[in-house]
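Q&A log
Question type: sequence-to-structure
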Amino acid sequence: MTESGSILTFILVSFCLAIILIMKKDSLPAQMKRYLALLAIVMVSISFVLILISFFGAGK
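Response status: OK
Response body:
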């Protein structure tokens, strides 16, 4: 898989995790919900940085 394919896969997985956590927030235990939410925030933040890097790198 190419570098752009790996980045795209990471972005899709991170946003899917965030969406699943939002949809299933009532059925998760409180302790697990906290750690999964932190993981999702970190992954989505990294995804936004990767998106920005790919936009700025596309002009080269």
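Response note: The first helix runs from residue 3 to 23.
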